[in-house]
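Write out the bound-state structure for heme C.
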Amino acid sequence: MTKGKDKLRRRSHSDRSNPTLSSETKHSSNRSSALEVLYMNRICVFASVMAGLGAGALFAQSDSDYQTWMKTVAASNGSLQKGIVAKDKGAVVAEAQKLQDTFKQVGDFWQKRGATDAVGFAKQAETAAGAVAKDAANGDMDQASADAKTLGASCGGCHMAHREKTDAGFKIK
Ligand code: HEC
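---
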């Protein structure tokens, strides 16, 4: 779009100045503007290749971070459930706090992607994990168990909307 406009402007500019130029200067000015266009095109190609590489690397990295978070989350959630059954206050508090921290990062990730529903699920999970930590710290394991169910529901809600199963495993959708 802009490139096209530039070419047009350049052409009309040299048209206007043509009559005042000797044939020799006209020739060299045409050649230099051709070189200029070539140079510009090279810069454009270079810039788009760099932009493509940059965006690719960025997404690849975030996606693998994301997978690491989910693996941590799954392990912590398992230990948390076991801790509730065993009434192991210390373990439940520790795992719940870890979940709370991780879901905060998960929420930031979705915020950057502009996926409001996913931000909501992450927030729900973060809040529920915080509640479980508090319940357990107060020694109220029944309440911890109830809040852990809310936490579990947020996993399913987000997976339904944003997790896709592929032959190679899960991926973000
Ligand atoms: C805000 C959205 C969201 C929430 C909340 C969420 N997940 Fe996920 N989860 C995803 C997405 C998206 C994927 C697919 C991406 C991936 O696997 O890398 C995923 C993948 C996973 C995976 C597969 C990881 C792999 O090997 O690829 C597990 C296990 C998992 N989640 C467990 C959980 C558990 C347990 C909870 C709740 C305690 C939870 N998730 C909450 C979005 C979420």
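---
The longest helix spans residues 23-85.
The chain has five helices and two strands.
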